[in-house]
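for the recovery benchmark. tokens below, seq after
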């Protein structure tokens, strides 16, 4: 997947999260979980974009780690929505699979970047 494709994919996830949060019931629990999901789900793409502008390998790894954390946190909030019966599992399955793939791809990118850095310590990648 190219950088632009990843940017587009994370933006689409953010838009899906926004639509999900807007559709939640107006209960205290749903609103609290929704706000948390809105923050983490929209920051995945924002932090990936920041990673694309990293100034160094260390900066890149740090920002990719944030992408991983935010995506995993988003999964947590969606799990809570399902487990609390606020949203059906059926409604979130596709979004959760997409976010889980983002986690997997980000972890793979982190591992690849670390291995390249260890193999060639003078490399800027």
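predicted aa per position
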């Amino acid at each position: 997947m190219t950088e632009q494709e990843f940017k587009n994919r994370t933006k689409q996830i953010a838009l899906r999260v926004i639509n999900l949060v807007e559709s939640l019931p107006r209960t205290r629990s749903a609103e609290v979980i929704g706000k948390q999901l809105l923050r983490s789900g929209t920051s995945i793409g924002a932090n990936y974009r920041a990673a694309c502008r990293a100034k160094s390998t260390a900066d890149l790894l740090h920002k990719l780690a944030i992408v991983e954390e935010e995506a995993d946190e988003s999964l947590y909030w969606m799990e809570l929505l399902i487990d609390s019966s606020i949203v059906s599992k059926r409604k979130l399955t596709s979004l959760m699979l997409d976010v889980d793939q983002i986690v997997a791809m980000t972890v793979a990118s982190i591992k690849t970047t670390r291995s390249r850095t260890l193999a060639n310590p003078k490399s800027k990648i």
